[in-house]
Amino acid sequence: MHVLVPVKHVIDYNVQIQIKSGQVVHDQVKHSINPFDEIALEEAIRLKEKSFISKITAISIGPEDVKPTLRHALALGADQALHIHTDETLSTLNRAEVLQAIVSKENIDLVLMGKQAIDDDANQTGQILAALLQWPQATFASEIKPGDTWEVTREVDGGLQTIAITLPAVITVDLRLNEPRFASLPNIMKAKSKPCQTIPINEFNLTEDQAIEILEVTEPPKRQAGTMVKEIDDLIKIIQEHCA
Amino acid sequence: MKTLVIAEHQHDVLSPLTANCIEAANKLSNSCDVLLIGSKLDTIQKELSTLPSIDTCLLVESPKLSHPIAETYAPIIADIAKSYDVILMSNSTQTKDILPRVAGLMKITPLTDVIEIIDNETFKRPIYAGNAIQKVRYQAQHKLISIRPTAFKPTGETNISNISFKSIQPTIPQTKTSWVNMAEATSERPELTAAKIIVSGGRGVGSKDNFKKIESIADLMGAAIGASRAAVDAGYVPNDYQVGQTGKIVAPDTYLCFGISGAIQHLAGMKDSQTIIAIDKDPDAPIFKVADYGYVGDLFEVIDLLQNSMATS
Fold this sequence. Notes:
The structure holds two protein chains of two kinds. Chain A has helices at 35-49, 67-76, 92-105, 125-133, 185-191, 232-242; strands at 2-6, 9-11, 19-20, 23-24, 31-33, 55-62, 80-85, 110-114, 137-145, 150-156, 159-165, 169-173, 196-200, 212-218, 227-228. By secondary structure, chain A is an alpha/beta fold. Chain A has a single domain (2-242), classed as Rossmann fold. In chain A, the strands form three sheets. In chain A, strands 11-10-9-12-8-1-6-7-13 form a nine-stranded mixed sheet, with helices on both faces. Chain A has a two-stranded antiparallel ribbon with strand order 2-5. In chain A, strand 3 (19-20) and strand 4 form a beta hairpin. Chain B is of the alpha/beta class. Chain B has two domains: 3-167, Rossmann fold (3-Layer(aba) Sandwich), CATH 3.40.50.620; 192-312, TPP-binding domain (Rossmann fold, 3-Layer(aba) Sandwich), CATH 3.40.50.1220. Chain B contains eight helices and 18 strands. Chain B has helices at 17-26, 42-48, 70-81, 93-106, 208-221, 229-233, 264-270, 299-312, and strands at residues 3-6, 9-10, 13-14, 32-38, 54-61, 86-90, 111-114, 116-119, 122-127, 132-138, 143-147, 164-167, 177-184, 197-201, 224-227, 254-258, 275-280, 293-296. In chain B, the strands form four sheets. In chain B, strands 7-11-6-1-4-5-12 form a seven-stranded parallel sheet, sandwiched between helices. Chain B is elongated and about 60 Å long. The chains are: A alpha/beta, B alpha/beta. At the A-B interface, helix 3, helix 4, strand 9, strand 10 and strand 11 of A face helix 3, helix 4, strand 7, strand 9 and strand 10 of B.
């Protein structure tokens, strides 16, 4: 069984982003794998260790800059990497169409990916891909049990929902599915000899989707710090006033 | 703008978030239609009649639609959505699951988590966990939009609708998804995203047992209970208590938090609360930069005093 894990190259989650001239500053800012995608990759690696799957392909769409994230995926345990090269920012629909083409070209049985990327927070690529493929989907997975049908427990409002899906399918993962491992030094060295193929975006014959045009990015309105209360009795009064 | 709001419901009760969607729809057109999908809709139908500005309520009812499975719901919604300019849903986990699948079927990129509607094609949405706001122009033959409910609070206007109901016979698709079960987080307390008061605890609470004190305060106030990711990771409370970028986004009238230092990812989930009251032992905790009232000290002392004074009043 062949699993595709899309990995997005994003500003590292520990970095406080900066905004200049209506845009988020990317130059000289630390980037890394989208944390949700890293959890998806970890799950794929565990499934491979338990022999439920046989091959893991990591894929990333973007400029040359995304390569370190693909090398990171190879060091963690992906068998091969695909770099879809484009200097443009693609819409989600176009990204899903690229993934759809790769799914059929590489005979993919399962797509495992993060529920959202921490840059645009859109939470939609996996679901759009599942629709394009006409495959079942299980989003926000917190537990995945392989079998004849795969039982996936999902984190939803108000509790945990479990559904069963028949593969091929798309599963998007939530934070608590697992804790990703660190790449060991020998594996980082080994990753250098693993295949990483670059495919130019124009090989996909996409119809450019421009439904969403970003006009500007601004700082959110700042909340003003209020008053520090010194006396505990005053605090109790304030709490009671506001929590009646 | 012909606008369709997709209503949500649980246990045969209309979700309060539907009113927020209608509030958002009102910013695009004077009235809207509502789509109601499920297996037993009669009580929900009645509840809908109390909401303003609805023309027609489309009913898609079948015993096979008792669970909101994306693979089943999406084709039904996509088919109806073709007759509308704008399709609006809240940003509940159910919407997050279904709406992009509808979008995929219609080959349209959806616009998720909208917090402001400037005009028919200009919208604002948060990115980077609310650390930046993106202003976008969204042009699509059918605009598929999810809104952040806390940004569209119903005004309580009683422009009572004169709703007409229209049943639609659905073609229920064959799917490869089946329902197994739902483990509900059982609680008598108000739902986090709908609560007027939230009492929240962080790592500073120290243990699962100590967290019970937070719960008893919340119960005295009739409040919902929240927690930081640190408290959830430490096992003090279940996942669905979590407020923050990776948990629930809330905006209650009062957010009272104990032992929460205020990591960026937590602030992203609660900074739109009307009044924030924070108690923490660290005077440098970032939470005090956003709190309306801050108190540096022992949170248990505050809880005990609060409990005594509430018991006597």
